[in-house]
Specification:
By secondary structure, the protein is of the alpha/beta class. The chain is built from ten helices and eleven strands. Helices cover about 35% and strands about 20% of the residues. InterPro entries: DUF58 (IPR002881), vWFA_dom_sf (IPR036465).
Length: about 350
């Protein structure tokens, strides 16, 4: 969303300026996104509070068997899966044996960043795109301490850019720097790649199961549907991704999208389609209708994510994303086994 205010006053806030003008670069520097002092506090406060929740073999996130072969033992009828039968040992001993598996000790995490034009503005501390990168950084810091590999995919309006999964803090900083310096998608760029295609790209390219993070505002250009029962354009792809992986959806919103402020007559424009509408935000009834439509849109997004079997966390540009993610992960530990009960084999 971009706006042109007829009663606009001067401002020195470069982030707020993205409401009117297209940004030319990131609204936050890398050292502000992840300064060393803040990183140390993150590890001491959040990670220690999550001790046992995201550690080692990630026990408790999704209960299941592992993938690495272990010792063979006698087959127990009714308890063991015949698909794990070790036929070589069975032939040698003339007694049915199965091969146990051990848990994988590292997780492969991939983050999909929606970098389309609708993410290029904000009214608080940073743009929606940079808040999405901050959310990816926080999740990366929570996993890299345990040696997990972290990779990224940037979805532009017409293409995707893939960064291979690597472990370690240096690799994570390199990924974040690349995301921050990624060229801004110009306004009015005709979107030829919907979010569903970006999700399908992650599913199609990365065969190894693990955790997938989808960062977007989940707004589809031209979609005016508000009924939560009507599937979204990206819901089917997200369901496919969640059937094979543990998926966390980070919904990025700005407070001005939820509660429209009184700014007089404002030209509201869609940066992806160039559709525009002049709205008198000083009219209380107009603001009530706009807020109701925005709330219905958010409810539809939440319903689609819930039906897909993915976890959902909402990040706002006027809130502390580290605190919000910490609260989410602590609560997520309790509901993840039920949420991701898809019958798929993943880390215990």
């Amino acid at each position: 969303m971009a706006t042109t205010n007829r009663r606009r006053t001067s401002t020195t806030d470069g982030v707020v300026d993205t409401i009117v003008h297209q940004p030319t670069g990131a609204s936050v520097a890398l050292h502000q996104l992840a300064p060393e002092a803040a990183l140390q506090r993150l590890e001491l406060t959040i990670v220690r509070r999550l001790e046992g929740f995201l550690h080692g073999d990630h026990r408790g996130l999704i209960p299941a068997v592992g993938t690495e072969a272990s010792d063979a033992r006698p087959y127990q009828p009714g308890l063991d899966d015949v698909r794990r039968m070790d036929w070589a040992v069975t032939a040698r001993t003339t007694e049915p044996h199965v091969r146990d598996t051990i848990a994988d000790r590292e997780l492969e995490v991939w983050a999909l960043l929606d970098a389309t034009a609708s993410m290029n503005w904000g009214t608080r501390t940073m743009t929606k795109r940079d808040l999405g990168i901050a959310g990816i950084a926080t999740m990366g810091f929570l996993t890299q301490k345990m040696g997990d590999r972290f990779g990224g995919v940037i979805m532009r309006h017409d293409s995707v850019r893939r960064f291979p999964a690597r472990s370690g803090r240096t690799a994570l900083y390199a990924l974040l720097r690349s995301m921050l310096t990624e060229p801004i998608v110009p306004d009015s760029s005709s979107p030829s790649m919907p979010l569903s295609e970006g999700i399908e790209h992650v599913l199609r390219v990365e065969r190894r199961r693990g955790m997938r993070i989808v960062v977007s505002d989940f707004v589809t250009p031209g979609d005016l549907e508000l009924d939560p029962a009507v599937p979204t354009e990206w819901e089917r792809a997200l369901r496919r991704l969640a059937s094979r992986n543990q998926v966390v959806c980070m919904e990025i919103v700005d407070p001005a999208e939820i509660n429209f402020p009184d700014m007089g007559e404002v030209l509201i424009a869609d940066p992806e389609t160039s559709a525009a509408q002049l709205v008198d935000t000083s009219d209380e009834q107009a603001r009530v209708r706009m807020n109701a439509a925005a709330a219905a849109q958010r409810r539809r997004v939440a319903a689609a994510i819930r039906r897909s079997g993915a976890a959902h966390v909402q990040l706002r540009t006027d809130s502390d994303w580290v605190r919000d993610i910490a609260r989410f992960v602590i609560g997520y530990r309790k509901v993840a086994p039920v949420l991701h009960n898809t019958g798929q084999v993943m880390n215990p």
